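INFO  loader      accepted 1 record
INFO  loader      residues=155
INFO  predictor   begin
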Amino acid sequence: MKDVKKTAVTSPVKDAQKPIGKTNDLGVIKISDSVVASLVHRAVTGVDGVSRLTSTFVDDIAEIVGRRKSSSRAINISMEEDRVDIEVKINIKFGFKVPDVAAQVQTAVIESVENTTGMNVSSVNVIVQEIEDPIEVKEEDVEMEPAADLLDEAK
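INFO  predictor   done
INFO  writer      dumping C-alpha cells
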C-alpha cells in the first residue's frame, strides 16, 4: 500500500474564520461563552461581601419576557482564541470595602476560569452598581422567648 500524503488547501477567507478553541490530534475543543459565564457566576457569588450580580430595569423586563436571565446580563464575555476578557456587574453588601471586594472578585474569577478551561483571562473588569444595606429585622417579626424559659432550658 502506498503512503498518500494529504495536503490541505486553504483559502484566505477560511483562515480568517478559524474556530475559537484549542486543536489537538483528535479535533477542535470549543468552550462556549455560557460555560465561562457560569464559572464567573459561581466565582463571583462565592466572594464574601458580594450581595448579588446586578441587573438594570431593562434586564429585569427582558427576564420577565423570557429573553435572558438577568444574571447573564450582568456578565459580559469576550473570547478570542484562548484569551478571554470578562466584565461583571455586582452589588456589594454594606460594610465591606469596595476595592477589596472587587480585587477578590477579580482573583476568584481568574482562578476559576483559568483552572477549569485552560484559557488565559486577560482582564476582569468589575463594575460595582450599588451598595446594599443589610436586611433589617423588625422586633415584632421575631418571636422572643421569655428569659426565664431560656434559663430553664439551659439547666
